[in-house]
Every structure is written in structure tokens, then in C-alpha cells.
Amino acid sequence: MPKCPKCNKEVYFAERKTSLGKDWHPGCLKCTKCNKTLAPGSHAEHEGQPYCNKPCYSALFGPGGYGHGGTESHTFKH
Ligand SMILES: [Zn+2]
Ligand SMILES: [Zn+2]
Question: What domains can be seen in the chain, in order of their start residue?
Fold first, then answer.
């Protein structure tokens, strides 16, 4: 029985969601940052943690993040 990488409990075949090469509970495959429920195969990943593509992954790790400056990621504050 595979174990869910999020909660470390066993995942039953009928309920598992396979993504990132691992088996997740449907309620455990969520964006690490914003907690949005993710669809297997259509989300981003960083160091084994699932993230939604937008806005979280592109904001955190994407090329340039917000804006078009590329290296201006430290100018986030309003
Ligand atoms: Zn789980
Ligand atoms: Zn997110």
C-alpha cells in the first residue's frame, strides 16, 4: 500500500491521486502555499512539494515572478 507523502498514511487504491510519481489522498494533493486543491498532472512541484502553477509557483520560483524585471523579486512590497 503506498503512503501519502503529505500525511504519511496509507492511500487506498480507490481514493489515490497519482502525481509527481507518488500517491496522494484527494484531500492531501493541495498547493503547499495557498492550500488550493490540485489536479494530478496539472500542477507544479518544488522539492517534492506540490504547488499550483499560478499564482504560487510562478510567483515563488518562476522566471521573473511578478512583473517583467527578471531579477526584481525583492521589490515585492507595496
Ligand atoms: Zn494524505
Ligand atoms: Zn497555490
Answer: 13-60 (2.10.110.10)
The pLDDT tens digits of the residues spanning 16-59 come to 999 999 999 999 999 999 999 999 989 999 999 999 999 999 99
pLDDT score recorded for residue 42 = 93
Q: What are phi and psi of 18, to 5 degrees?
A: -95, 120
Measured in Å, residue 69 CA sits from the centre of ligand 2 at 22
Distance between CA atoms of residues 56 and 62, nearest Å = 9
* Alpha carbon of 44 to ligand 2 centroid (Å): 9
The Å distance, Cα 22 to ligand 1 centre, comes to 11
Ligand nearest to the CA of 46: 2
